[in-house]
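In this supplementary section we document a worked example of the pipeline. Step one takes a protein sequence of length 90 as its only input; no multiple sequence alignment statistics are reported here. Step two produces a three-dimensional model, which step three serialises into structure tokens for compact storage. The input and output of this example are shown verbatim.
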Amino acid sequence: MLPYAERHGLKLGYELYAPLDIESHLTQELIEQIERIKSPSLGIIPDAGIFARPIPIFARKNAVKGGAPSAVVKRALTLWDEKKAVSEAK
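The serialised model returned by step three reads:
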């Protein structure tokens, strides 16, 4: 796709979603690849979710109100917190 994008003046990007962030291993590999390819048509698109911090209490309550089992919500919060702990340890 990249040669087509370059020929037609289009831009392509790897979109970063949470739990990825700029410092994550995968993101760093993508950045290295982009630098190696050196194409003006290839880049990174950070989704606003990568800047998210704690999940708001209202979102937790709305998930359960909307039918998500509380055990699933608790597990999701645990996984979210584990990610946060890993990024803070860097």
